[in-house]
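Hi support team,

I submitted a single chain yesterday and got back a structure, but I'm not sure I'm reading the token output correctly. Could someone confirm the output below corresponds to the sequence I sent? I've pasted both exactly as they appear in my results page.

Thanks,
R.
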Amino acid sequence: MNSTPRLALAGTAHHEAGHAVVALALGGTVRGISLRPVGGDWHGDVGLRFPDTDQAVPDLVVALLAGAHAEHRWHALHRPTHTAYPYDIDAGAAPDRDLVHDLLTALPRRERPTQRELDARAARLVLTHWARVEHLAARLIQHGHRDRTRS
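Hi R., thanks for writing in. Yes, this is the structure output for that exact sequence:
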């Protein structure tokens, strides 16, 4: 495998690990994580669940936003060249941001936290739990996917 697919796997693994680790830190559960090759790229999915409380939607939003923060942190630490890692992290996280928008707009306005507040919380949690993100990402890279992750 040349360096681009290997780096794409690493970036995707950190992105999905960010979702999972932050969800677990917030009291959610992870039903599974999958990584799959698509052409010369990798795509990932993570199944998240949160207890049915008033905090469920904001916590899910934070976990969704954490994926891009984890991938950005991995990128900043490893600094792959644009030629080796020609991916736009923010464009790749667009489906997460679209879901965040839908979840937040479904909340009554007076109960809706700002996306900026939740995004800052996601960034802090990724930094706080970075060692766990890296550990899970390494497992994902080694095994390609995790069908079940303990809560």
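A quick pointer for reading it: Residues 38 and 55 are 35 Å apart (CA to CA). Let us know if anything else looks off.

Best,
Support desk
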